[in-house]
Every structure is written in C-alpha cells, then in structure tokens.
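The data layer described in this paper is built around a simple, fixed record for each protein. Because each token names a local backbone shape, the row as a whole describes the fold. We quote a single record here, exactly as it is kept in our systems:

***
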Amino acid sequence: MIREKILELLAEICDTDEVIRNPNVDLFDTGLLDSFGTVQLLAAVSGQLNVDVAPTEISREIWDTPNKIIAYLEERIG
C-alpha cells in the first residue's frame, strides 16, 4: 500500500509516470523533484499516510529515488 501510494504521489508531484516505470530514477539529478516538490511530498505523506516527516530528517541521499523514499517510509511506519 505504501509503495503504490508513494509512486502515485510522486507521479502527480513530478507530473510524469517515469517514477512508476523506473523507481530507481534519481529524482533530483533528473530535475523531476526539487525542494518545493519535496515539501509537497512531505505534506502529502503527512496528510494521506498519517506519517509526519520533518524536512530536517531527510537529505537528498536518503530521498533521491522513489525506491529509497518507499524504503524510508516503510521503515518509519514499521
């Protein structure tokens, strides 16, 4: 459930389904996600998954691909 929801949110925020086709794509290096998009994602994760993640908890290295974001959130939720 988390995987599908995150991929759906990323596709909407990044305005492309590339994140679904290639969940190992580097979101920042390709320009698919920027700091504003990251804030949008954090707000969506909080609102839709009920998981609060502070911007200070993450870094580009931790959240640079859809798969890494999913793994991070799955670990947080347990």
User: Anything to note?
Assistant: The chain has four helices and no strands. The longest helix spans residues 35-49.
